[in-house]
């Protein structure tokens, strides 16, 4: 099977020839450590094609995320979001987004897919409103406004949701095979927001976006997502990622939701890939494939992405373990 066929089979909860391996990004520094060079691609490309020389990932990824209108600090190549800039309605004119109705906006993506697509599953990475809103307002202003001025929150949410809905409606015709909707709604202890906030403010905007998609989509969130799954499943997602360990009970999720969604990730970025040994990586990949792979519906991945501080030898161990344990029948 091609990588594209493998990923789509897993998203349909079918058994492919082997467990697919996808990532939402590979840091350029890691690509250079592994391969020694980079290929010139648009800045929106999250996985430099040079990495395929060493890591046989089954996807490519193009980023359609709107910027966060906040103070951004870059430390060791990582963006850290600080104080939000949209503190009042007077700041709304600072939200300036490219026109998603213009074909020129999509030209780099189309050219990238024409050159590198086909055999690999084409992933579009985007959001749907909530994360851009609370990051652009700042969590302090956002939280107060939920109670003092909820219509202000809704105005900001709608700006982003309407923009993403227009983008989402164009992805299938461009040739994208699936999307990842990245909305961080949880931390290690559980949901960041109350169920009432999620249902009243977030779900309607997310639905506005995903209803425009004509391709399968995966919801990504950091943290313990278990308490949110029943609500999120009402949106019709094909899968959930990246199942940050150890706060997600993936065995329970497989038993309870495995007939409805696929599962992505859960290879530990906090320890195993960054500080562990190749033997520990092999053991974790083998365990995760054994837990989530039977019957299909599992896509091997890190618990967030392949950062610059992963150990290169551990990514090679992940590659080799998938090859050793990932073929069906498991």
Give the topology, please:
Layout: H1 3-11, H2 28-35, E1 59-63, E2 70-75, E3 78-84, H3 103-116, E4 121-126, H4 130-137, H5 139-148, H6 150-168, H7 171-174, E5 178-182, E6 186-187, E7 190-191, H8 195-210, E8 217-220, H9 229-233, E9 239-242, H10 250-257, E10 262-265, H11 272-275, H12 278-292, E11 298-299, H13 312-325
Parallel strand pairs: 1-4, 4-5, 5-8, 8-9, 9-10, 10-11
Antiparallel strand pairs: 2-3, 6-7
| Proper CATH architecture | Alpha-Beta Barrel
* CATH fold annotation: TIM Barrel
Query: Which consecutive residue ranges, at least 5 long each, have pLDDT under 50?
Result: none
Largest beta sheet: what is the strand line-up? 1-4-5-8-9-10-11
User: Residue share in helices?
Assistant: 40-55%
Number of domains: 1
What is shown here, in short?
This protein is of the alpha/beta class and 330 residues long. Helix content is 41%, strand content 14%. The protein is built from 13 helices and 11 strands.
What does it look like?
There is one protein chain. The protein is α/β, with parallel strands linked by helices. The protein has a single domain, classed as TIM Barrel (Alpha-Beta Barrel), CATH 3.20.20.210. 41% of the residues lie in helices and 14% in strands. It has 13 helices and eleven strands. The protein has a seven-stranded parallel β-sheet. α6 (150-168) runs parallel beside α8 and α12 runs parallel beside α13.
């Amino acid at each position: 099977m091609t990588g594209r066929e493998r990923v789509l089979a897993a998203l349909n909860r079918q058994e492919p020839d082997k467990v697919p391996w996808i990532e939402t990004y590979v840091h350029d520094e890691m690509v250079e450590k592994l391969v020694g060079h980079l290929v010139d691609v648009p800045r929106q490309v999250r996985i430099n094609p040079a990495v395929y020389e060493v890591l046989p990932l089954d996807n490519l990824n193009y980023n359609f995320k709107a910027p966060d209108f906040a103070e951004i600090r870059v430390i060791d190549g990582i963006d850290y979001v600080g104080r939000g800039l949209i503190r009042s309605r007077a700041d709304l004119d600072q939200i300036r987004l490219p026109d998603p109705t213009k074909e020129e906006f999509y030209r780099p993506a189309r050219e990238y897919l024409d050159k590198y697509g086909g055999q690999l599953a084409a992933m579009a990475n985007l959001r749907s409103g909530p994360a851009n809103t609370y990051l652009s307002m700042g969590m302090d202003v956002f939280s107060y406004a939920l109670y003092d001025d909820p219509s202000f929150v809704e105005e900001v949410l709608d700006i982003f949701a309407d923009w993403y809905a227009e983008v989402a409606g164009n992805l299938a015709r461009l040739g994208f095979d699936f999307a990842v909707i990245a909305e961080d709604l949880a931390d290690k202890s559980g949901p960041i927001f109350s169920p009432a906030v999620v249902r009243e403010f977030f779900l309607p905007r997310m639905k506005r976006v995903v209803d425009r998609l004509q391709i399968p989509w995966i919801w990504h969130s950091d943290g313990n997502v278990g308490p949110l799954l029943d609500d999120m499943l009402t949106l019709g997602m094909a899968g959930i990622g990246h199942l940050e360990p150890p706060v997600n009970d993936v065995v329970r999720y497989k038993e309870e939701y495995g007939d409805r969604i696929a599962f992505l990730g859960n290879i530990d970025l906090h320890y195993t890939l960054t500080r562990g040994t190749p033997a520990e990586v092999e053991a974790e990949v083998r365990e995760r494939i054994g837990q989530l792979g039977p019957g299909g519906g599992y896509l091997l991945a890190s618990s967030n992405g392949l950062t610059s501080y992963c150990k290169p030898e551990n990514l090679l161990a992940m590659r080799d373990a998938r090859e050793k344990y990932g073929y069906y029948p498991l």
